[in-house]
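Holo model, zinc ion. Inputs:
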Amino acid sequence: MPENALTKARAPIEPVSTLATAIAGRYTISKTFTFAAAHHLPGLPDGHKCGRNHGHTWRVRVAINAEELTGPGWVTDFGDLAPLARFIEQHLDHQDLNAVLPVSPTSENLAAFVAAWCQQHLEPTVHGRLESVTVSEGDDLSVEFRPRAVRG
Ligand SMILES: Nc1nc2c(c(=O)[nH]1)N=C([C@H](O)[C@H](O)COP(=O)(O)OP(=O)(O)OP(=O)(O)O)CN2
Ligand SMILES: [Zn+2]
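Output:
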């Protein structure tokens, strides 16, 4: 019989179990949180607009990775990231970031601040490792912070 679309579609397909074990790799899941907050950046030259109080709608994307899946076949339940949503709502949303952060509230410092919180409070409760925290002040600007892997 000549091969056509119908005979191709009826050809036996490789079982999913074979496919899944044939390729090794790393899975990364991520969740993005949004909040509004004010800030200003101290130490800039006179007249720099970022030295004045202003606000942004910030986006914080947290990525967790793992090479082995767990449970039903996931890195960790997206729902396991809920404590970060609570932290953001209680401590960052509609706040003055200059009063919250112990350092100048640039996106770089905010990303490292959130990553430190995640390492302390989130990583011990989820399957997988914190890969990165990405902070955006707007649609076209972002900073990604990747914690250095601890040896041992
Ligand atoms: N590397 C960084 N550069 C800047 C940061 C930062 O955190 N890291 N932050 C700022 C200020 O927050 C500033 O408010 C952002 O201003 P700007 O880049 O101009 O963004 P706008 O949304 O105001 O964009 P417009 O294009 O001017 O509308 C500055 N730089
Ligand atoms: Zn700003």
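The two ends are 60 Å apart (CA to CA). Residues 28-145 form a domain with the Tetrahydropterin Synthase; Chain A fold (CATH 3.30.479.10).
Archived with the compound record.
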